[in-house]
Amino acid sequence: MKQLLIWGIIILILSGLSVSLGRKKRPEQNGQSPSPKEIVIAAGGDIACFQNWKTDEDSCKQKETAALIEQINPEAVLILGDLQYNPPAFTSWLGYEESWGKFKNISYPAIGNHEYDLPGGKGYWDYWGEKAGERGKGWYSFDLGEWHIAAVNSNCGEVGCGKESEQVRWLDGDLTASKKACKLAFMHHPRYSSGKSHGNTLAIKDMWEILDAGGVDVVLAGHEHLYERLKSGNIREFIVGTGGRSLYDFGNPKTGSEARISDSFGVLKMVLKEGGYEWEFVSEDGEAKDRGIENCTP
Q: Per the omega criterion (within 30 degrees of 0), is the bond before 87 cis?
């Protein structure tokens, strides 16, 4: 009886050892951290015509660009302003709702100038609610993976963009408080642009200085209905006003302009990684017309 008990104990010990040796250790059990998640986002602005406006080669391509987003299958969509053209009331957002509106649950909007065609941007906040930040302000921030993201309101005549404005003081504190190594900001008006229709936006000069000092690596904007990639100091700026409404022409290239496309609607695809990012401008025919990879500024 005593021998049977001893053999039973030996068998239990050997069984436990076998299970332990055969079990695969998790990365953190080996002293390694799991690989950080890469976040895929899509971005664009200047998007939707009124529901009953006719689509042609040069305008109202919001359904085609929405189809690109479906193919990209991003985890977040950054909306760069001028989402829905006149009339901008909540009940008139059907052109946007039936196209880019299908991504509303993963979308983060920035307010454009056309949203203010209705005083105070009323239709914009009626549509988005708290997703657009505090009503009447339009700035907010969040984290995606290893990145800190800030949405700002570049309609300076409505909310103020000077150094002592509430928004810029908030932005300064927000960027300073973030411990993320990589940072992105998005808005409607570009600081620098080679576009013939609008060009540089001097009114956001103070805001841009805060973005640069705050360690922002990437700024996304719209307003010009074209695609442009520029570099200014440590910031790479992407203008993606190609969401569907119409297309504009370029003027003379600005200093720092790296790529310019004015004949294609499309969206920007970005992969946000730990310490860097990849980008592709995907045109309406599915072709990647501009792409690259870059590290964040140390």
A: yes
Of residues 272, 267, 186, the one with CA closest to residue 227: 267
- Compute the radius of gyration of the chain from its Cα atoms: 24
The tokens for 209 are 């200085």
Could you give the 3-state DSSP secondary structure of residue 144?
A: strand
Superfamily for domain range 36-295? Metallo-dependent phosphatases (3.60.21.10)
Residue spans per domain, the chain:
36-295
**What's the CA gap between 296 and 183, in Å, rounded?**
8
Nearest of 275, 284, 282 to residue 293 by alpha carbon: 275
The helix (run of H) or strand (run of E) holding residue 177 is helix 166-177
What is the per-residue pLDDT across 232-263, written as a single tens digit (0 to 9) for each?
999 999 999 999 999 999 999 999 999 999 99
Residue with tokens 């880019």: 100
pLDDT for 115-127, tens place per residue?
A: 998 889 998 999 9
Taking alpha carbons only, the member of 158, 184, 251 closest to residue 41 is: 184
**Residue-level pLDDT at 90:** 63
DSSP labels, 196-212:
SSS---GGGHHHHHHHH
SS3 291: strand
